[in-house]
Design a protein that fits this description.
Length: 222
C-alpha cells in the first residue's frame, strides 16, 4: 500500500479543529491507492485530467465525491458534468456558460468555484480581481440557472516566503468575505478552497475551509 496513513491521520486531526474539508488529490495515482484511502473513510477526491477522472470514477464506488481541480477545456465539460461533485477551476465566463449548458441538458445545477489568481508569479490560470468583478457583477450571470457558484479557489506562489504565501491567501479571504455579502445571482459563497501539501497550514490560518492535498497522502508524483 503506497498511501501515507500517518499523514492522513495527522491532516484529519489538524482539520478537525477548524472544520475544514479535505480533498485528497489523486491525480496520476492508481485506483488501488484511492480505494485504500476510501477504506479509511475518505470520500472527497480531486483530479486534474478529464479522461483520467472519467476512467477512475467508473471503477470506484458511486458515493465518492469527485472534485475537478485542473484546467478545464470547454469541449470536455460534457464528460464530467453527469457526475462531478464540484469544479474548482472555473476561470472564464465562457467556461461557466458551457457548464451551465451541460447542467441544463442534465436538468440539474452544477456546483462550481471560481479560480482566482492570487500568486505573485506568472501562471496561466485564474481570474484576476478585475475579471472576477466583471464576472460576478456582470449581466450574463443572471441567465445561468444551471450553475451554482459555491466559492473561490486559489493557489499561492511557489516560494519559501511564508509571509508572501500568507498575504496571498489573506487577499483571497478578503475577496471572499467581500463578495459573500453581496446578493449575486446563482451564487452562495461558502467554500474557500486553498492550501496544498506544502502550505495547507498557512491556508487554514488565513481562513481556508477546504484544502486540496496530494503528495502528502499519495507520495510525490514522478
Ligand atoms: C496537484 C494539485 C494539488 C495538490 O498538490 P500537492 O502539492 O501534491 O498537495 C492541489 N491543487 C491543485 C490545483 C493541484 O493541481
Amino acid at each position: 500500500m503506497a498511501i501515507h496513513v500517518q499523514n492522513f491521520c495527522a491532516i484529519k486531526e489538524t482539520l478537525q479543529s477548524s472544520g475544514a474539508a479535505l480533498v485528497a488529490v489523486s491525480k496520476t495515482k492508481p485506483v488501488e491507492d484511492i480505494a485504500a484511502l476510501y477504506a479509511l473513510g475518505q470520500r472527497d477526491f480531486g483530479e486534474n485530467y478529464v479522461q483520467e477522472l472519467a476512467a477512475k470514477s467508473s471503477e470506484l464506488p458511486a458515493d465518492v465525491r469527485w472534485h475537478f481541480i485542473g484546467h478545464l477545456q470547454t469541449n470536455k465539460v460534457k464528460y464530467i458534468a453527469p457526475f462531478v461533485h464540484l469544479i474548482h477551476s472555473v476561470d472564464s465566463l465562457r467556461l461557466l456558460q458551457e457548464i451551465n449548458k451541460q447542467g441544463a441538458k442534465l436538468q440539474k445545477k452544477i456546483n462550481v468555484l471560481l479560480q482566482v489568481f492570487i500568486a505573485g508569479e506568472e501562471t496561466k490560470f485564474g481570474l484576476d480581481e478585475a475579471e472576477l468583478k466583471t464576472l460576478l457583477e456582470g449581466p450574463e450571470l443572471t441567465a445561468l440557472s444551471n450553475i451554482q457558484i459555491c466559492g473561490f479557489m486559489g493557489m499561492a506562489s511557489f516560494t519559501s516566503s511564508e509571509a508572501q504565501i500568507r498575504g496571498e491567501f489573506a487577499r483571497l479571504k478578503t475577496l471572499f468575505d467581500t463578495y459573500r455579502q453581496q446578493n449575486l445571482p446563482h451564487t452562495k459563497l461558502e467554500i474557500l478552497s486553498m492550501g496544498m501539501s506544502g502550505d495547507y497550514k498557512l491556508a487554514l490560518a488565513e481562513g481556508s475551509n477546504m484544502v486540496r492535498i496530494g503528495s502528502m497522502l499519495f507520495g510525490s508524483r514522478g
